[in-house]
Amino acid sequence: MNQRMRGFTMVELLVTVALLGLLTALSVATVGPLRERYSRRQAAELAASAAARAQLMARETGRCHTLEVYRADPVNPAGEPLEVLNIDEEGDRLRIRRRKTPDCEIQPVPAAELEHVEWVRMPGRMRVRVPTGKTEPEWRPNSRLREVSTELRFRASATGPELAVRLMNQGPVCVSELPLEECP
């Protein structure tokens, strides 16, 4: 009697491996942009919550609170964020600071007049910036912004799309895709 061997041929195994590789490549290409969009949204929600905390602390303490963009100093081995950025420069964290005195009219604010409250680090490789023509948000004790409105923008890469967090004078925070959508 001739017994027949059971199993898969080499061609069947190669086709199966090729199909699995193709499906894996397609799923990775699909998940990448979703992950970037999720990180942008997560960073925007972190900034919106930091803005809400700064506004609440300004009302509770009776002192002006600011939200500043910082970048970690690559030379510093401890990774302490030391470099405060100018308008339209990208950073990787936000810092909430408050004035030591209730006087909110002194402009520009001397560095010795501000005290640290809280750091907010952006997730992953997210970058945040205050766009040109806007100012860093500063809340007064009546919980209103110094300027009528301002915004923060987030991106995952130098060429990627941005997400905006707009801070309005009366207090609402609006997260929108760019080009800017209307806030409710």
DSSP strand (E) fraction? 25-35%
Shape label: elongated
CATH class: Alpha Beta
SSE ordering: HEEEEEEEEE
Number of helices: 1
- Number of spatially distinct domains: 1
Q: For the report, how would you describe the main beta sheet?
A: 5 strands, antiparallel
Uncertain stretches of 5 or more adjacent residues: none
Distance N to C terminus: 82 Å
Q: What structural category arises from helix and sheet content?
A: alpha+beta
Strand elements, count: 9
Radius of gyration: 24 Å
Mean of pLDDT: 79
Please give a structural write-up:
The longest helix has 52 residues, at 10-61. Strands 1, 2, 3, 4 and 6 form a five-stranded antiparallel β-sheet that branches. It is elongated, with a radius of gyration of 24 Å. It has one helix and nine strands, in the order αβββββββββ. It has one helix spanning 10-61; strands at 65-71, 83-84, 93-99, 114-121, 127-129, 138-139, 149-155, 163-168, 173-177. The chain is of the alpha+beta class and 184 residues long. It has a single domain (33-177), classed as minor pseudopilin epsh fold (3-Layer(bab) Sandwich). The protein is 28% helix and 26% strand.
List the helices and strands and how they pair.
Layout: H1 10-61, E1 65-71, E2 83-84, E3 93-99, E4 114-121, E5 127-129, E6 138-139, E7 149-155, E8 163-168, E9 173-177
Antiparallel strand pairs: 1-2, 1-3, 1-6, 3-4, 5-7, 7-8, 8-9
Brief digest:
The protein has 184 residues and is an alpha+beta fold. 28% of the residues lie in helices and 26% in strands. It has 1 helix and 9 strands.
